[in-house]
Amino acid sequence: MDKKILRLKLGLQEDDEFVLFTVGGTKLGLELLRVADRASTLIKRETGLTPVVLTGPRINADFTNGLKLVRFTPDALPYFAASSCVVTQAGASTLHEVSMLRFPCVVVPIENHWEQLANARKLKNTDFQF
């Protein structure tokens, strides 16, 4: 489906290209979202992309620096598909989705988290380019 049509279906602006930050279902990713919030003006200015945060089900945070906030949805794939890039932690499900569907992504594994680091390494060793 065309990204512009998909953005409209998601309640976003048709021409508003965005980078999607998502951290899954726990509060472990809250720091990545806070960094995105602090950098949102820079992201918009340098890339022309609007920063959008898709929160996990247990994240109940507000952001004040220009991030568009999308509360948890069990169907994140349309947001991935409508975005220009996905910035995510290294959760197995999310990495599987972005790699199989060839969505551009930046992976930020949780520091010292063996599973996240292993997932990121596995993705790095595939033919998927990010």
TrEMBL record:
Instruction: Write down the species.
Output: Candidatus Marsarchaeota G1 archaeon OSP_D
- Which parts of the sequence belong to the Glycosyl transferase family 28 C-terminal domain? 21-125
Q: What is this protein's name?
A: Glycosyl transferase family 28 C-terminal domain-containing protein
TM segment ranges:
none
Give the GO molecular function terms: hexosyltransferase activity
Source organism, top-level taxon: Archaea
